[in-house]
């Protein structure tokens, strides 16, 4: 009896401890949510009610994190997150390409802005077409007789691309300029899957369709290697030409081959800072305090500066804006998948809803689809393409503006447009298709689990727990081949090319923008501004407003989405996030999670999503 009492007392005490811990966790979570709601509300209220005048002086381009076409989270919550967690959030912040360039355009003509300082330490990068586009606005700023200076403790290739537009580049002592080239690496899982006894069924069309290679090989195929090497070299040549031209140097001398580079570094005893100065990568070696003194002198002892985040855009009168005809802007950003838009995913449900809303808006006279996607689900891509076609059926012109990539499914949806504009460095093409179904019958058998049953047809007897029947394999392959024929027919009809010609440039091959134009896959090499001009021309309008179309969501949905993005990660997650190998594996897992096509058919370019500066 006493023993039972002791046990019962112990259980009661243990339960009390658990209950106390539970209540603490619940209360802390509740307080955190209240804090986020309160902070978010105050940030939004502050932005809506306070119109601070811009300071006179220097505009500081102090971008934190990456620059992307379309920001997935509310910028107010980034500001709140930074207040709560400090500067550790900087490197994962997203910044809108078009908001930045709009501010640069305004600053060019703003008499209160005397110059720009590119403070690039916390800028983590952008795709090359985005960098080109920013560079265009920096050039225009300089051409308006205003000066640009750049400084960073070290320059990665994205940072240096922007710095090359400056009148003068500074580098602190012990600083480095990293100009080494481009690379892409993937993990290959064939042996792992074999060891796990996973039976990977792959169905594909296209010699160069490399998206499935990580699951069926331990290395890159010769065809995929040759194709990737070709366009990657082209992109690097474009990068080198741009920065060398900005620095008034010859590209082959400014960024030499590895053996010459090593010889040159040896000549300065391995001092990479001195190398950067001697070979004109930078103009001056100076610590930050000297840089600040130089800026005072350059701008006539002007002390005031304003961050690009605090620099306010001055918009036109709202009443005038609402009466102007609209050019609607829709973003297709990330892997194309069924469902709603989410982080790094372009959800077909969200995008088709946006496109359908455009058709019902009589004030919309033209549409620009900004595509920055490696593709994804065939079903999702076709749903988006159909809605684009429906807009054109109402005599509303549609222009595709390609960003860093518009490959495979990204190109599939582009075939429904009136006109396609790409950057010279846009990664596009990858016209091919594949299907993938893993089954686990051998894995289960290894641990003593088997599947058996009865079906009325071998086509009905398909499950992840047993091998696919021969009949189902045949059906899948025919479906994939039909999907490929559909793809090349869409391209042939849209681009007025023969089926044979499209097949030659298809097969999953990837092309840079200029190569794609030479082969008839795009109409013009240009940027977003060219797309706007073309849309206005096709709609025959001269006075218009650009309206970004977003999906309707309740305030609660938006709040929960942004709160989840703002919550701090666990220590383990934060460490995991900074391990390159773990990040690459996680990227593959995230990709597989988006593969939700009901027919298991995908138009996706793997390498397109894995190359950056």
TrEMBL record:
Keywords: Hydrolase, Membrane, Protease, Serine protease, Transmembrane, Transmembrane helix. InterPro entries: ClpP/crotonase-like_dom_sf, Pept_S49_pIV, Pept_S49_SppA, Peptidase_S49, S49_SppA_67K_type_N, S49_SppA_C. Signal peptide: none annotated. The chain crosses the membrane at residues 20-41. GO terms for biological process: signal peptide processing. Pfam families: Peptidase_S49. Belongs to the peptidase S49 family. This is Signal peptide peptidase SppA. It comes from Candidatus Schmidhempelia bombi str. Bimp.
């Amino acid at each position: 009896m006493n023993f039972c009492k002791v046990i019962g007392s112990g259980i009661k005490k243990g339960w009390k401890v658990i209950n106390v811990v539970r209540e603490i966790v619940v209360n802390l979570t509740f307080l955190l949510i209240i804090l986020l709601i309160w902070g978010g509300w105050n940030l939004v209220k502050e932005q809506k009610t306070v119109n601070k005048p811009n300071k006179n002086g220097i505009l500081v381009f102090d971008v934190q994190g990456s620059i992307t076409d379309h920001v997935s989270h509310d910028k107010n919550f980034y500001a709140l997150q930074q207040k709560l967690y400090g500067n550790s959030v900087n490197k994962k912040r997203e910044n809108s390409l078009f908001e930045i360039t709009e501010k640069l355009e305004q600053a060019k003509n703003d008499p209160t802005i005397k110059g720009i300082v590119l403070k690039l330490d916390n800028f983590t990068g952008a795709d090359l077409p985005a960098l080109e586009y920013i560079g265009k606005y920096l050039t225009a700023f300089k051409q308006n007789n205003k000066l640009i200076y750049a400084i960073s403790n070290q320059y990665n290739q994205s940072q240096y691309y922007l710095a090359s537009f400056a009148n003068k580049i500074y580098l602190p002592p012990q600083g480095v300029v990293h100009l080494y080239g481009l690379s892409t690496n993937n993990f290959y899982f064939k042996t792992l899957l074999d060891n796990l006894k996973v039976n990977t069924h792959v169905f594909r069309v296209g010699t160069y369709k490399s998206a499935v290679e990580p699951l069926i090989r331990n290395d890159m195929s010769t065809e995929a290697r040759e194709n990737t090497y070709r366009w990657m070299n082209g992109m690097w040549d474009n990068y080198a030409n741009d920065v060398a031209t900005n620095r008034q140097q010859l590209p082959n001398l400014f960024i030499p081959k590895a053996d010459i580079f090593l010889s040159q570094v040896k000549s300065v005893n391995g001092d990479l800072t001195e190398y950067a100065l001697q070979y004109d990568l930078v103009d001056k070696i100076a610590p930050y305090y000297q840089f600040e003194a130089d800026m005072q002198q350059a701008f006539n002892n002007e002390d005031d500066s304003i961050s690009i985040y605090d620099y306010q855009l001055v918009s036109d009168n709202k009443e005038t804006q609402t009466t102007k005809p609209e050019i609607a802007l829709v973003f297709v950003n990330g892997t194309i998948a069924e469902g709603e838009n989410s982080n790094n995913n372009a959800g077909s449900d969200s995008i088709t809803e946006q496109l359908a809303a455009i058709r019902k808006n009589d004030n919309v006279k033209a549409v620009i689809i900004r595509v920055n996607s490696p593709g994804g689900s065939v079903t999702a891509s076709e749903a988006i393409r159909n809605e684009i076609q429906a807009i054109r059926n109402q005599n509303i012109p549609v222009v595709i503006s390609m960003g860093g990539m518009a490959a495979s499914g990204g190109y599939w949806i582009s075939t429904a447009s009136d006109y396609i504009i790409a950057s010279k460095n846009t990664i596009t093409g990858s016209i091919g298709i594949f299907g993938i179904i893993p089954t686990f019958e051998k894995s289960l058998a290894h641990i003593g689990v088997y599947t058996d049953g009865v079906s009325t047809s071998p086509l009905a007897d398909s499950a992840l727990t047993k091998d696919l029947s021969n009949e189902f394999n045949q059906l899948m392959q025919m479906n994939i081949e039909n999907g490929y024929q559909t793809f090349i027919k869409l391209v042939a009809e849209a681009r007025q090319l023969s089926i044979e010609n499209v097949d030659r440039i298809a097969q999953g091959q990837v092309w840079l923008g200029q190569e794609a134009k030479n082969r008839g896959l795009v109409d013009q090499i240009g940027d977003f501004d060219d797309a706007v001009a073309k849309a206005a021309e096709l709609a025959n309008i001269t006075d218009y407003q650009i309206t970004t179309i977003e999906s309707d969501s309740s305030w609660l949905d938006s709040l929960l989405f942004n709160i989840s993005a703002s919550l701090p990660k666990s220590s383990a997650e934060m460490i995991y996030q900074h391990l390159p190998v773990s990040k690459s594996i996680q990227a593959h897992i995230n990709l597989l999670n988006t593969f939700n096509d009901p027919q298991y058919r995908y138009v996706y370019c793997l390498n397109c999503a894995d190359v950056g500066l």
